[in-house]
Amino acid sequence: QDNSFEQFIINYCNEKLQQIFIELTLKEEQEEYIREGIEWTHIEYFNNAIICDLIENNQTGILAMLDEECLRPGTVTDDTFLEKLNQVCATHQHFESRMSKCSRFLNDTSLPHSCFRIQHYAGKVMYQVEGFVDKNNDLLYRDLSQAMWKANHSLIKALFPEGNPAKINLKRPPTAGSQFKASVATLMKNLQTKNPNYIRCIKPNDKKAAHVFNEALVGHQIRYLGLLENVRVRRAGYAFRQPYEPCLERYKMLCKQTWPHWRGPARAGVEVLFNELGIPEEEFSFGRSKIFIRNPRTLFKLEDLRKQRLEDLATLIGKIYRGWKCRTHFLLMKKCQIVIASWYRRYS
Q1: Do 126 and 186 sit in the same domain of this protein?
Q2: What is the DSSP string of 187-223?
Q3: If pLDDT is split at 50, 70 and 90, which confidence band does 324 have?
Q4: Which residues contact 342 (CB under 8 A, 6 or more apart)?
């Protein structure tokens, strides 16, 4: 019920993960249709980049304001931090505070004076400002790390490498928020180089009980996980896409004109293949470099035809091999019979 600095940085990480989910699924999905010249219906979705900017902007972000309060001289308290937020973020549409200059929150009795509220992608979350400055300023001072590095125990010495006099850095150690922000940035950079697969877990009830399905709870999770937008984009678009070359290579045995070798461009081969199979035109579209298939059932049909064709080809190969083996044996027997007969006639 009481969210503090820890929950704030956890929710910040969730925002960044949601952002990369949007970029790698919804945004990339629609941009690919544009690149490939495919006609389709554009689907609107909420991009949470504005919330990430509210938290991590280097000049006006909440983490930047918190670091500035921790580093500035003079009296610094949680209230002065909240006052700074009210000055900098007052007009932001996803930031709310009773002390804000924005009058629309002055009569909001559900928001205490010592709190601020952020409209996250998953909904509104209220944070208790008490403890933010101390928790963000929870630093390991240089003299402590140097003392631990001088310990005789090898494990303790290894845990505090920054205490090594040869590596002394006169800069102030980074705050907890800065360290977390850097870790999140490293994670995002790593994820963007991968091809992630998403597994969304839906909690059916809060009691962890079997056979209990809370429809309102499940509906809430589906909305804030962005699954509705994802489903709408998938249904409006195409379920499967593949470059022409591997598509032709995989399914070319289904058409006599493309099997065993197609001499022309890969796209022309795919067009001949799909026309030969009689697939309805509304089930696929030709992009600049890829074939787009709308419904999974069309792909399943292609896979079933390919499976049957592979079985037929395997039977054909077995038949030809057995025929070749029998014919080779027959010719050898015939040759041997001629030799035996000729020698027999010579001595008879």
Answers
A1: yes
A2: HHHHHHTS-----------SS--TT---HHHHHHHHH
A3: very high
A4: none
Q: Which pair of structure tokens corresponds to residue 162? A: 């920054």
Helices (H), the chain: 5-21, 28-36, 49-56, 62-71, 78-88, 132-136, 142-149, 154-159, 176-192, 215-224, 227-236, 244-251, 266-277, 296-347
Residues 183 and 258 in one domain: no
Pairing state of beta strands 123-128 and 115-120? antiparallel
pLDDT tens digit string along 178-198? 888 989 999 988 888 877 777
The residue range of the domain holding 13 is 5-138+174-193
**What are φ and ψ of residue 114, in 5° steps?**
-95, 20
Question: Where residue 212 falls among pLDDT bands split at 50, 70, 90?
Answer: very high
Q: What pLDDT does 109 receive?
A: 67
Is 69 inside any structural domain?
A: yes
Question: SS3 of 286, please?
Answer: strand
Question: Same structural domain for residues 110 and 13?
Answer: yes
